[in-house]
Amino acid sequence: xxxxxxxxxxxxxxxxxxxxxxxxxxxxxxxxxxxxxxxxxxxxxxxxxxxxxxxxxxxxxxxxxxxxxxxxxxxxxxxxxxxxxxxxxxxxxxxxxxxxxxxxxxxxxxxxxxxxxxxxxxxxxxxxxxxxxxxxxxxxxxxxxxxxxxxxxxxxxxxxxxxxxxxxx
Length: 169
What we know:
- There is one protein chain.
- By secondary structure, this protein is mainly beta.
- 13% of the residues lie in helices and 41% in strands.
- The strands form three sheets. A seven-stranded antiparallel β-sheet has the order 3-2-6-9-10-5-4. A three-stranded antiparallel β-sheet has the order 1-11-12, with no helix packed on it.
C-alpha cells in the first residue's frame, strides 16, 4: 500500500508578506487590440527572460478585464516608471472606464501606448503566453528600447520605495 503525502498548505497572507521582501521595479504594461482598444496595467511582475533572442516576461491574473486585449494584441510595451511617477502607477492600478483620458502618451509599435519621462521603455512583439496557475505569463520579444537613465520607482513590503546606491560601491 502506497501512502499519499499531502503538501502542506501555504497561508496566502504569509506568502504575500514573504514575497514583499523582494523589491521590484514598477511598470505599466500597455497594449492595443486589433479593434483599437487600449489597455494599461500597473505591474511589478516584469522581468528579463533571454538575451538571445531578447525576451522579457510579465504576468497578469487570468480574470483581469485587460487580459483579453493582451491575448489578442500583436505588440506590448513595458513602461518602467521613474521615481516621480507614483501617481501614474496608482492611476493605472485602479479600475476605470478610460485609463488613458488626460494621460500624456504616444502610440508605440502595434499601437501599444508609451509614456514620456519613464526610466526606460521596451516595445515588444507578442512572443508567447504560458499558463502560470491563476496568472498568464506573457512573453514579449524586444524590438525597440529606450533607456532614459532616470531613477526607477520601486515597490517593497507593500510600499513604494526609491533606489539609493550602496555606500560600499
